[in-house]
Amino acid sequence: GMMSRMTVLRIEFPPALMSREQAAYYLSMSTRELDRLRQSGELIPRSSGKNVRYTKAELDAWIERLPERP
Q1: From the CB of residue 61, how many other CB atoms can be counted at a distance below 10 Å?
Q2: This prediction's pTM
């Protein structure tokens, strides 16, 4: 029936909070480049316990601030 079909459905989406490595991968850059953006204040991570996490919203906002290239 309908329920058996529903359980097969898998929705892929990026995590709301990303580690340093995940954030770098999401932005297609190295962790060193990500660290530079953090040090310059261009990216501001959140703290999750003792771990640093980047929000998807913060990363997306950084992407939106990039200059457009015609």
Answers
A1: 12
A2: 0.76
CA triplet 26, 51, 30: central angle to 5 degrees? Answer: 30
For 1-70, where are the E strands, in sequence order?
17-18, 46-48, 51-55
Half-sphere exposure of 43 (CA within 13 A, CB side): 26
**Which token pair is 29?**
């850059």
Q: Which residue type occupies 58?
A: E
pLDDT recorded at residue 3: 58
Three-class DSSP category at 29: coil
Predicted pLDDT of residue 7: 66
Query: Among residues 67, 43, 52, 61, which one has the least CA distance to residue 17?
Result: 52
